[in-house]
Amino acid sequence: MYGMVNKAVQTLDIAQHGQPVWDRVRERAGIKEVAFVAMQTYPDEVTYNLVGAICAELNAPAEVVLELFGESWVAYASGQGYSVMLDFFGKDMRSLLRNLDALHTRLKTVFPHLKPPQLGCEKIDENRFRLHYRSERPGLTHFVVGLLRGMGKRFATPVTITIEQRKQDGADHDTFLIDLPPVTT
């Protein structure tokens, strides 16, 4: 993963728990770097180890930590200059859902070593969508839930996400039902 992801984990942990907790997390995860380089790639294990160390340090389940991180990732990426790109792919939650896979295709031009998931979103009705998530990285189902909540906050749209099926439970891929409030005119 790119260092930007690890920097976001670091920023969130320090903001919520302080530098001493982050120092313990970094030590527990076996990370020697004091700062991550945003455009440098790091082995996925670095990120997984950081999340695992945060879970251990805070005595919190991975699902909770991953959802919180996913939610905060949207604001973090926006603050790092990616707000314009996010706006290009959706001015509201519905249009963004339709363009998620295109967003990752575009990000690949900025991050050439990116290994993005495949995302497909089908509209069930005006207020309900099904998101199909396929990734070579295991265990990120709850990160996606957090991302969707974070995007809902970005658009001031309450989002209800239900995990419909999970790859870790034997499904071919993860699917999520996303319920949005009715559009008001």
Describe this structure in words.
The protein has 185 residues and is an alpha+beta fold. The chain folds into two domains: 58 residues, no CATH class; 88 residues, H-NOX domain. A four-stranded antiparallel sheet has the order 1-2-4-3, covered by helices on one side. Helix 1 crosses helix 2, helix 1 packs parallel to helix 3 and helix 4 packs across helix 5. The longest helix is centred in the middle third of the chain and has 28 residues. It is globular and about 50 Å long. It starts with a helix and ends in a 6-residue tail after the last strand. The model has no long low-confidence stretch (mean pLDDT 89).
What percent of residues are in strands?
5-15%
Return residue spans where pLDDT drops below 50 for at least 5 consecutive residues: none
Largest sheet, in brief, is: 4 strands, antiparallel
Mean pLDDT: 89
CATH superfamily of the largest domain: H-NOX domain
Q: State the CATH topology of the largest domain.
A: H-NOX domain
Shape descriptor: globular
